[in-house]
């Protein structure tokens, strides 16, 4: 039974989708008219090795004299990408040649295709030097977390095709791995024109596939540990008539048991992509995904629970006892999400071009968790369910950018970014259903209290300018930009309303110099910020002041080398962060922000990979990080000032190291990787730590020869945690002290008070087998 809140949410969703669709249609129409105006114009192309993370704008130059290396726009891109994809890779796709004047770390399609289809972007980037990735399950449905240079994924912009996407905890909502072309991380920077409000930790960008020119598709089936089963199919339209439009549609269904305790996770997902290219260089891309998920909210253990499991085997997960308040069906996340990204590039006369990028996401659902027990009117004891109910999480925005190629050396851009994000959430309480499951929080038959209702959000207006200059035959590249962000932020609950207007000046300067075809040096300096998200605000009462914006000043100095055998990249960095916002895990997959003052991080990243040598492609990376807390912090739980100044920053290990090796011979392929994370502090006081640990993965497979309709029959096996290590891979969030109390659940045990942080634990050994083929 749905109440009026759900109906109004769908009306708002329909209105937003209608407006977005209108923007896309107008953009397509404008592109078509632009194509007619400039159909005889020549295009200027950049080298295929140029980073796609921060693309240089290349507007059409009317009646330009083509350089000797220029190619016709209708054919150049296909030839360049196809011929250079493997040439740009090292380490079996675990590293790519980059030329941007800032750090970029990329895994490409070659590596993605060796991993299990259940892999999310987090699984794919876990061997990059600047990241420590933690995931709670082996089926890819529960997302995870990122630590990056002393910051977290909540400090990062997570993007799909240049549009802001779901948080790392829900990264599986975004796109299926079969539809990913690459995943890039820029740990120290974010492009001026990107619509990001949390970029202190840089950007992780997922690029979806380009629809195929010919009709066909892909199908795969996976089965594995923990009763994992997954089916996927993609249908490619090829070019539709002679319109230049091509697209694809894919559907996947995933089912798996929880690896710890009882419970079943399920996910259904749709991806839909369209692309239209014009001969003059204009293009339009449309990507839509729909995700429906029901998964168990894990019980993340305290130190005591973890060591009990490690030493005695007694688990801490949910129970299959339907009479227990901790029954897995009473601890679930139910969510439906729609995501749309629709970038359009329009080539105009007089060396001008226009980029319009509307985006939209909308979600509804709830998290259910145990609420203890109570006695009803008949005197019977009944279990309770507490909910975090989001009737709406909606984000809609657009980026518009006008580019002018002033001359052969300079391209100038001016743009505007608008975004409106809002969450409508409440905290109902219901009786647990007789079968042990959580009822819908909108089911009046079980509802006890609708709970407090809260609306929080923000509206962003931002202006930016950017100039890319290239001199000395493009050996010297200078990127300079400035973004000014103006935000109205609000929070409304039962007790009142609070709002504020914030501004953030964000300068940026990057300089890259290509000494010759093998050597490059670069320097990057920029300011980035993070403001509390709409959901962050929703966990704060209006009696609590909205946290100040976090602001970062970052410097980065790097060197790159590549030849026919080796690719290498070294980056030195220094960050100074003021008003550092960290997040405390409060259960139900939700976090509450708090401020810990100032923080400093400095260190270096090293990546090196080899081209195939007799079929072997090695890869290695390491990061050294010195991150320190620069402020003392008051602990409201213990009512005392923590002497945290000078201690190791929370969730900032000194060392992260990786090694990978890929082997290919005829149809056979294999990839193995080992990851090490050093010891780290998990409390602001520095009185709780976790030791270093090692994780590993292995992929094996064989490409068979085409047979009948099967163009690329392939079988592969993917293994994780081969040694079945029982290790904590990271903290769920920050806590003030190891003495901070919290409510703990463990199997059939009654809830009790635990202390300190809670943790993600590496899932036990898992194997996934996959059969796939293109057709």
From TrEMBL:
Location of the TonB-dependent receptor plug domain: 98-203
Membrane topology of the entry: Multi-pass membrane protein
Keywords: Cell outer membrane, Membrane, Receptor, Signal, Transmembrane, Transmembrane beta strand, Transport
UniProt keyword annotation of Signal present: yes
Superkingdom assignment: Bacteria
Locations listed in the record: Cell outer membrane
Biased composition (Low complexity): 73-84
Organism listed in the record: Gluconobacter vitians
UniProt signal peptide: 1-34
InterPro entries (alphabetical): Beta-barrel_TonB_sf, Plug_dom, Plug_dom_sf, TonB-dep_rcpt-like
Ranges where the record places region Disordered: 38-94
The protein's name in its UniProt record: TonB-dependent receptor plug domain-containing protein
Main location: membrane
Gene3D superfamilies, alphabetized: TonB-dependent receptor, beta-barrel domain (2.40.170.20), TonB-dependent receptor, plug domain (2.170.130.10)
Keyword Transmembrane: yes
Family: Belongs to the TonB-dependent receptor family.
Membrane spanning residue stretches: none
PANTHER family registered for this protein in UniProt: HEMOGLOBIN AND HEMOGLOBIN-HAPTOGLOBIN-BINDING PROTEIN 1-RELATED, TONB-DEPENDENT OUTER MEMBRANE RECEPTOR
